[in-house]
């Protein structure tokens, strides 16, 4: 995975000696920031690359150190987030529902019912 991210994010530059890669603390912070963007915040690779391009390496390192929240400071077009089909209102509803487990369960049940309804109509 690290080699793949090194290809996708050329800002990640480990030291190479004797065919081995050595990651410095600042490399690890950048990797943690990229991981946060991709796996926790739900950005696509293109969206994470856009954050790096617009906000810079130090911002993504700060994300890796958990010094800044991502969505409070990033204005990325909808295709940078893994849920481009959601409207801003739907994203807000999802974010607030995820903060409350009961509301989260109710939202998941509604989504499941919609999916089952679509599947039934295609049969």
Outline the secondary-structure elements:
Elements: H1 2-8, E1 15-17, E2 20-22, H2 25-40, H3 45-55, H4 57-64, H5 70-73, H6 88-99, H7 101-122
Antiparallel strand pairs: 1-2
Helix pairs in contact: 2-4, 3-4, 6-7
What attributes characterize this protein structure?
123 residues, mainly alpha, 2 strands
Brief synopsis:
The protein is mostly helical and 123 residues long.
Structure characterization notes:
By secondary structure, the protein is mainly α. Helices cover 65% and strands 5% of the residues. The protein is built from 7 helices and 2 strands, in the order αββαααααα. It has helices at residues 2-8, 25-40, 45-55, 57-64, 70-73, 88-99, 101-122, and strands spanning 15-17, 20-22. The model is unreliable at 76-81 (pLDDT under 50).
